[in-house]
């Protein structure tokens, strides 16, 4: 499958076979303000679900598009350019569908992909689980930051348990969304449309073992290129954050250029768009975004090509990819801030898209997968002094 989008900053025209039509992207952008007001992205979620965006990585034999990591990144970049909240939901939803495809019990995976469905999970909880035959007894089944929970068919989160040999293990557990209580707790200043609410499944519940899978290191049940590439999942979370902020940066530049078409500073004789400082600044910011996008695409292509030969990415490769993603998150945030400076006070009005974009990009700069402590740990991988758990990288 070829890349779904051109990387040119001035277009979001999709590959002819892509579900990312201009009509779909326009609909996603049109719903962005409503999602921001209500902390509810179900309308955009359902549009993306209908178009198959959550199954871009899923193998064709399970009804997915069988796309590459770069296809997934490009699609998320385009959706985030329409609405960063929708981009996060799409990128994370597609990644989690991929985890089920390659790691879930084959019977559950076949049933799950018999229709278009999504899952929403989180590792932000203190749940524990104990294996009892074909089931897990889960206690304290409560999780925060369950992005996309309102539109998902299955929900759940990470639990701490033990392997048959007595060693520690972490797994994701899934239950039908109808069995969950969603607490509308998500009230941040940015990415409000992700609906990343708290999820409650009770103080104890029984979950079939077939509705669980190891995480963040996947136990593979369906080998292939996707399984080899995605066996250690946290790079996918980091790249999701990068795609969101870079997509937001592209929208910010678009918004700044649109404002500059007619903006006149006091005593100016020509609009801002014809003034040298604006032209030079836009050129520099475009270059920063394109460099970050190109770098990530190259690393993703390299990872995927290697996985296609059956060779797993090394810890060093995953660390470099995650560090590049972390830097891209910062680049996207910087570009949005600079775009606001170019526009001036108009960009601070809630009616201007740059006001919301500024709030959105700051959220992911604080995500744990790109935090300063995480970057330090990844740096020790490159230096050969890493002492943490393998699953972290």
Write a brief structural summary.
This protein is α+β, with helices and mostly antiparallel strands and 393 residues long.
If you had to describe this structure to a student in words, what would you say it looks like?
This protein is an alpha+beta fold and 393 residues long. The chain folds into three domains: 22-112, Butyryl-Coa Dehydrogenase, subunit A, domain 1, CATH 1.10.540.10; 119-214, Butyryl-CoA Dehydrogenase, subunit A, domain 2, CATH 2.40.110; 232-392, Butyryl-CoA Dehydrogenase, subunit A, domain 3 (Up-down Bundle). It contains twelve helices and eleven strands. Strands 1-6-7-11 form a four-stranded mixed sheet, with helices on one face. A four-stranded antiparallel sheet has the order 2-5-9-8, with no helix packed on it. The protein has a three-stranded antiparallel sheet with strand order 3-4-10, with no helix packed on it. Helix 4 (69-82) packs parallel to helix 8 (234-260), helix 8 (234-260) runs antiparallel to helix 9 (276-308) and helix 10 (315-343) packs antiparallel against helix 12 (372-383).
